[in-house]
Amino acid sequence: MTFSDKHLSRRHFSLGSLALFGAAGLGNIRAASAADLSSVTLRVASFRGMDSSLIPAAGLADFPYKVEFSEFNSGNLIAQAINANAVDLGGWSEIPLVFIAASKANVKVVATMDGPTTNQAVVVPSHSTAHSFADLRGKKVGYIRSTTAHYFLIRMLQNAGLTLADITPVPLGMSQGLTALKSGSLDAWATYGYVIPLLEADGSARVLESAENILSGHYFTGVNPTKLPDPAFRAAAADYIQRLGKAYGRLSQNKALWAKTISPVIQVPEDIVLRDLNAQNRPYKARPWTADDIKSAHSVADVFIQQHLIAPDLNLNQVFSDALFPLLTG
C-alpha cells in the first residue's frame, strides 16, 4: 500500500444542491427555522473525509442555506483562509489558535468541538534505531508548523530533557513531510491523521511516541468576523455547528457506517478506518466555548512563548466571540 499526494490535495465542491426543506431534526435552533436563509452561502473549510462526508452520511445535509466546502490538510491553513476572507467557517486545535491571536488575524472563535487525540504522534522509519525520544538527539525531525504536531514535538522534547536546539527541526507541509520520511530525508516526523496507520500498515514507519496524553482534545470553530453582524449568517453558522455535532453523535453510534462512508473518500482501507475510529479516546461534541477552554489554550501558548516563537503579551480573549451563544444549545 502506498500513500500519495492525492490523499492530501485540496478541492472545492458544493453541497448547496442538497438544501431541501430546512433544518430537519434541529428545530431547537429557532432563528434558523424562523429566518429565510436561502440567500445565505456558507463557505466552510474542512478536512477530507470530515464535514462534507459526515453530514450527508448522518442524513443532515438538508441545509436551509447553501454550503460550499473547501478542503485543507491543517488547521493553520484554515485559519489563514478565514483571515484572507476565502472561507467563512472552519475548525482547528488550540495551536493554530495561539498563532491566530499572536498575529492578530481577522478571525473569531465562536464554539468548541471536543474530540479525540488519537492518531497524533512522532513516527520513525521502521528500520530506525531510535526507540526513545532521547535517541533523536542530533537527528532531522519534520513537523507541520503552527499545528498540534509543532506543539507536541516541543513537549516530547521537553519530557526527554531536550529542546529544539538538540535536533534539526524541519518544518514541512503534510505531503512534503510524507515524501521526506519515505525517501529517508527525515529521521522522524511529527504528524497526525490517517497517514499514521497507513505508514504502519505498509511497514514503512512505526510510532515512536503518541501525543494522545499531551493534547487536550479541544478544537475550536472559528468564523469570519466580518460576517457576524449579519443575523442570517449567525443563524446559518449556529445551525451548521450543531448539525455537525449531531452528525458526529449519530455516526458514533454506527462506526461501521462512518468507516464505510469515508474510506473511499480518503482512500484508506475500510478496516484501517474502522480500527482507527474504534480506538478514539473520546467522542466529538460541539458546545459553546468556556473560560476553561481559554485557560487551557493559554497553557499551550506558554510553551510557544518559552520557545520565543510568539510574543509574551498574548491576548487570547480577544479572539473569542459569544455572538452565537443565544443560538447554540451546547
UniProtKB/TrEMBL annotation:
Residues 41-265 form the Solute-binding protein family 3/N-terminal domain. The lineage of its organism: Bacteria, Pseudomonadati, Pseudomonadota, Alphaproteobacteria, Acetobacterales. Belongs to the bacterial solute-binding protein SsuA/TauA family. InterPro entries: Solute-binding_3/MltF_N, SsuA/THI5, TAT_signal. Gene3D superfamilies: Periplasmic binding protein-like II. Pfam families: NMT1. PROSITE patterns: TAT (PS51318). This is PhnD/SsuA/transferrin family substrate-binding protein.
